[in-house]
Design brief:
Beta-lactam/transpept-like, Beta-lactamase/esterase, Beta-lactam-related, Beta-lactamase-related domain-containing protein
């Protein structure tokens, strides 16, 4: 028997399951590759293994759902550069802007609950925001990077202080009239969207707590914005690839080091500091488009809300003023029709600095996630996951 098929109908991860750490193949395993894979999907394991053979990855995990059920979940490599501890399926990883997809899901859920309206003015919910030319900003402008506040000039140590960042954003003047153009809001997106949720939540929870109670706990995923201190030991530290080490300037290296700081992990920096497993990210996206585990968990968003949340708010061929490239954003989600055409229309998700990603393809009823500790020049078509995604698309066709 080449592959081990586990009964994952009960997805509450018990200590017994965690301790199994079962190998995918029956023969001796190198590169610490362990996990779960359904028959027919073995090619994923082979491509995943090749990333370690070619030294593209130090430690990584990958997972996917098809038709609401887990089809593979693999971890491999090493937890850190000492190479004394395996990177496994329960290893937690900071995933940078892959977090933005979770924030987008949280805002969509608030819309579904009648707490927010994408077309409403931000000042309806957050009156103090209407200063210095931001009075006509819509919720949709914040979600689709059209708010005109792509950067904030504050010391990094201020990023862990939610109140300070919100007050700064309230007072800022936009770089362009809100709604008239778009430019990627790498960090400010998270505080802006998160404050909207905090303002309308009847329980006055932080964004991280809202996410935990309204999403993570309900579909049983491990995806945090604001990591509990007692879970820090599970977080694999980020490292730079040779290419990124050679190309990074002093400022980039400093920021990279700061995101390994446990104090940053405990803070809520929703544009960039989500911490998760690949399984949790893939499960989140599967739960956005349908029920999970044969109806055992109901979908997070209904079809009408999903259509609103994934409708493009970027005019065709408009150039991102921050990144100087063309991409299409919906309500916080990056649209992948042009980036991953092999997965059919209406695919959406979000990637993160260094190479992590989570996305789903509704037309295939498929979701995918990849997380890793070695940061490299990221692209969904790079050698780490590009060949894997192409083979998966062929398999699903």
């Amino acid at each position: 028997m080449d592959y081990i098929l586990l009964d994952r109908s009960n997805l509450k991860r018990s200590p017994i399951f965690d301790s199994l750490n079962l190998p995918v193949r029956s023969e001796p395993i190198d590169y610490n590759i362990r996990g779960f894979i359904k028959p027919g999907w073995g090619f994923v394991r082979d491509i995943f293994r090749d990333n370690f053979v070619q030294e593209r990855d130090l430690g990584a995990s990958v997972a996917a759902y098809h038709q609401g059920s887990l089809v593979f979940e693999l971890g491999g490599g090493w937890f850190d550069q000492s190479q004394t501890k395996p990177y496994d399926i329960n290893t937690l990883q900071l995933v940078f802007s892959t977090t933005k997809g979770l924030v987008a899901a949280a805002v969509a859920l608030a819309v579904q609950q009648g707490l927010l309206d994408y077309s409403a003015l931000v000042t309806k919910y957050w009156p103090e925001y209407g200063q210095n030319g931001k009075e006509n900003t819509k919720v949709s402008d914040i979600l689709s990077h059209r708010a005109g506040l792509p950067d904030i000039n504050e010391p990094f140590e201020m990023y862990v202080n939610w109140t300070v960042m919100i007050h700064k954003l309230e007072k800022m003047a936009p770089s362009w009239p809100p709604g008239s153009a778009y430019g990627y809001h790498a960090l400010t997106y998270g505080w802006l969207a998160g404050e909207l949720i905090r303002r309308v939540d009847p329980k006055k929870r932080s964004l991280g707590q809202f996410v935990k109670e309204e999403i993570s706990d309900l579909i049983n995923i491990d995806f945090s914005i604001g990591l509990p201190e007692n879970r820090e030991h599970l977080v694999s530290p980020l490292v730079l690839s040779k290419a990124m080490t050679n190309g990074a300037n002093g400022s980039d290296r400093t920021i990279f080091t700061q995101f390994n700081d446990p104090r940053v992990h405990r803070a809520e920096i929703p544009g960039a500091n989500g911490i998760a497993t690949a399984w949790s990210i893939a499960r989140l996206y599967s739960g956005l488009i349908g029920d999970l585990d044969n109806g055992g968990f109901k979908r997070i968003l209904n079809e009408d809300t999903l259509k609103l949340a994934t409708r493009s708010n970027t005019p065709k061929d408009e150039i991102d003023l921050s990144m100087q490239m063309q991409r299409s954003f919906a309500m916080g989600f990056l649209l992948y029709d042009d980036i991953l055409p092999q997965f059919g229309p209406n695919s959406f998700g979000h990637g993160g600095f260094g190479g992590s990603i989570g996305f789903c393809a509704p037309s295939k009823n498929f979701s995918f996630a990849f997380a890793m500790n070695r940061l490299d020049v990221e692209s969904v078509n790079d050698q780490r996951i590009g060949p894997m995604l192409n083979r998966i698309a062929e398999y699903l066709s």
